[in-house]
């Protein structure tokens, strides 16, 4: 499908929309919004009767709490109904599927899903297809082979290059460490698409930079588990100089573990740029993180879904959300980041 080109007036509209809910938006947020909408065109005509269901991973993680808030802010701005639901924990695959199936029964005009792993939501997507409800995958991808085998169709994809998140952190860490330094990775749930991609990106980045990867451990996105892993890592590898974590919750736990153990000189990076991580970067406790604008991501996903509901034939199959590295040198540029 061809990409509908986006005019300057539409870019101005999206910047104004960002201002309306965000006060003084960071210029990079407005740029991210424009970059996403340039791939698909601007907000379609809406009636205000549109109902969209959004399924995220879990509201026990502050990252997803913020995503829920951003969806709500844009829903109010657009004058549509958006309901955000989630599973109790990061690992409750069955509960997330049950939630999706309940959402299908509510007969939303469109549904947005962020899967815990590539396969757990496929039965629910099949049911949505049967009812003619368009489904958009936002974030880590549902397995395309799994969808094909189930006879299901994903109507659209919104994603970022998660592999680059790991790579950017590894490259930035390498600039701070001598060649040959020992480093480790704490990934999320091994089967999760974004965890796998971040791990691979970091691993490749370390190898290219000449750093020695001595351990890869599954933190399962969990703060306590990451804390224990870090405690054990520094005992097993006393020369460890760097740790990349696949989310900020685990990275902050790693920092806590190092501080409690009284160990200095270990550089830690995370991913997601949650508010607590931003403060840790400012204070120097955390070396850096990677991020994309959650305001831009959620707005782009809602606009894309609305265009599907309106049967826009010019939509691309997939949208890409730009990512960026945050560290102690550029943290000042992220004032007002959303």
TrEMBL record:
Keywords in alphabetical order: Hydrolase, Signal
Pfam families per the UniProt record, alphabetical: Peripla_BP_4
Subcellular compartments: Cell envelope
Main localization category: other
Keyword DNA-binding: no
Listed EC numbers: 3.6.3.17
Keyword Signal: yes
Cited Gene3D superfamilies: 3.40.50.2300
Start and end residues of each Periplasmic binding protein domain: 52-299
Record-level GO cellular component terms: cell envelope
Signal sequence annotation: 1-22
GO molecular function: carbohydrate binding; hydrolase activity
Domain of life (superkingdom): Bacteria
Broad EC category: hydrolase
Similarity-based family: Belongs to the bacterial solute-binding protein 2 family.
Full protein name: Monosaccharide-transporting ATPase
Source organism: Dethiosulfovibrio peptidovorans DSM 11002
């Amino acid at each position: 499908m061809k990409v509908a080109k986006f005019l300057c007036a539409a870019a101005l509209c999206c910047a104004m929309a960002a201002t309306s809910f965000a006060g003084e938006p960071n210029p990079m947020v407005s740029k991210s919004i424009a970059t996403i909408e340039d791939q698909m065109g601007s907000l379609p005509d809406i009636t205000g009767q549109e109902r969209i269901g959004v399924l995220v991973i879990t509201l026990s993680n502050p990252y997803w709490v913020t995503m829920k808030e951003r969806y709500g802010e844009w829903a109010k701005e657009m004058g549509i109904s958006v309901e955000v639901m989630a599973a109790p924990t990061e690992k409750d695959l069955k509960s997330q599927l049950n939630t999706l199936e309940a959402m299908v029964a509510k007969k939303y005009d469109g549904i947005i899903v962020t899967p815990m792993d590539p396969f757990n939501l496929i039965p629910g997507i099949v049911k949505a297809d049967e009812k003619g409800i368009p489904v958009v995958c936002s974030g880590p991808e549902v397995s395309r082979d799994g969808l094909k085998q189930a006879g299901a169709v994903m109507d659209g994809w919104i994603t970022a290059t998660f592999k680059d998140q790991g790579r950017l952190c590894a490259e930035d860490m390498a600039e701070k460490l001598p060649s040959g330094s020992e480093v480790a990775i704490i990934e999320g749930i091994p089967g999760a698409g974004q965890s796998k991609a971040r791990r691979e990106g970091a691993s490749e980045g370390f190898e290219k930079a000449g750093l020695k990867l001595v351990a890869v451990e599954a933190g399962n996105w969990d703060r306590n588990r990451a804390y224990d892993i870090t405690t054990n890592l520094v005992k097993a590898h006393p020369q460890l100089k760097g740790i990349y974590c696949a989310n900020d919750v685990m990275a902050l736990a790693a920092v806590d573990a190092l501080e409690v153990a009284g160990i200095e000189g270990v550089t830690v990076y995370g991913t997601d740029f949650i508010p607590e991580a931003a403060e840790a970067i400012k204070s120097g406790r955390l070396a850096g993180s990677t991020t994309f604008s959650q305001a831009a991501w959620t707005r782009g996903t809602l606009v894309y879904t609305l265009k599907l509901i309106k049967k826009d034939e010019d939509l691309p199959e997939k949208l890409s959300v730009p990512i960026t590295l945050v560290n102690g040198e550029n943290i000042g540029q992220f004032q007002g980041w959303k």
